[in-house]
Amino acid sequence: MAKTQGLDLLTDRKIKAAKPGDEMNDGGGLLLRVRGSGAKSFSWRGRIRGAGNPVRVTLGSYPTIFLKTARQMASDVRKAAATGEDPRKLFKQEPSKQNTLREVVGRWQRHAEAQGSRSAKERVRALELHVLPILGEFEVQDVSKGAVFALLEDLRDGKGVQKRKLRAQANRVLSALKTVLGYAYDADLIVANPIAGMKPPINEAITRHSVLLDIDDLVAVWNAADNLPSIAAPITKLLILTGLRREEITGLRWDEFDAEGRTLTISAERFKGKRAHRIPLSQTAVKIIQEQSRFPHVEHVFNTGMGRGSFAGWRRAASRLRELAALDHATWHIHDIRRGVATAWGEHLNVHEHSIARLLGHSGASRMGITATYEKSDRIEHLRQPVDAWDKFLQTRLDGGSPNVVPIHAGAT
Fold first, then answer.
1. pLDDT value at position 207?
2. Measuring CA to CA, which residue among 272, 269, 234 is closest to residue 360?
3. Partner residues linked to 3 by β-bridges
4. Helix runs in 243-282, H state only
5. What is the model's pTM?
6. What count of other Cβ atoms lies within 10 Å of the Cβ of residue 269?
């Protein structure tokens, strides 16, 4: 973290003794900053009369310019700013576009994806929605802790760009911005990450909840999905049939689907455990997938049309689904479907917990310990029985019946 010295007139001796990360204040807006590389530079920071956000004007590096010269330059800049003139023009410094926050976010995304990150695109999307419209044109070195704090409070309280309360999203935005500014620090674009120690605006330990959807809730969600005005309907039904995660079904590709073998293989790059995950499919699940339109050169089953990627309208669809299902739970999320399905497998079909873990894609180490190092089978045929039984049980409940449950003796797999 950068150490900012209080107002204390600079001397050559103090400048020479300054350490990486220091920012020393000479008064009148004149600052000396020491980058991680040890390079020292003078700058002026202040407000232009009639303008909003403060600006920073780079005056030059030390000792290329001496302290006396830097003070005179800072005085000229200050006088220009007081008249409403942009002092960057005084020194022929147009605002740099190379190190704006928007440019640095793009650089970080390329870096993260080169490192194999699967969440980079999602994080950038959050920043594009909530941060870049406000701070995107700031020089990354001018992004302050106070500005970020105010932005997150507005996001939490419904005063941000989207004009609605996005409490959980505020924490995700902070996490993404911390990562980007951490990259900027590593790249020597800033002397410190100003929000490295900032606490999340929402205490998720208090606000997080785990809603358990019972079988009646799942039936209500299934029926409500029929009235969704998008391809969210078949995705929702597949979530209930398979217990997979939302992203795993939403981003489903045609090459992951085997209609003849009735299986689905989530590729390693898309699966949370970074390994391929293969599960059997019921007849109903196969039918749902086969009913989706397939276009040449379009890889996603649930595509947006014209090959532009998979379905991305979950925010609106989830809100509409909650409204249509009208469950007793005040607030529930799409991920709660997965929890409800797994519980129903055990509660209504007596599926063994190890089989449930396999269907959900939990790691072998959590089930078998050291044995997982050697035992690599996916037990597809063994798992087909509970999958088909769940389909039959669910369809009976959807038809208004109360099926006689036949326990599944699927052993510890």
1. 46
2. 272
3. 22
4. 246-250
5. 0.54
6. 9
Q: Can you tell me whether residue 97 is helix, strand or coil? A: coil
Structure tokens belonging to residue 189: 């674009």
Q: Are 130 and 162 in contact (CB under 8 A)?
A: yes
User: CA angle, 332 as apex, 313 and 325 as ends, to 5°?
Assistant: 75
Distances (CA, A) of 412 to 160, 170, 197: 51, 42, 45
Question: Rg of the chain's alpha carbons, rounded to an integer?
Answer: 28
Structure tokens, 296: 């040449």
170 token code pair:
């505020």
Mean predicted confidence (pLDDT) in 62-89: 85
Q: How far apart are CA 282 and CA 94, in angstroms?
A: 62
| 143 DSSP β-pair partners | none
In one letter, which amino acid is 225?
A: A
Please provide the DSSP assignment of 184-212 as one string.
HHHTTSSSS-TTTTPPPSS-HHHH-----
Least confident range of 27-41, 246-260, 286-300: 27-41
State the pLDDT at residue 95: 47
Q: What digits encode the pLDDT tens for the residues 160-203?
A: 555 555 666 788 889 999 999 999 888 888 878 889 888 888 76
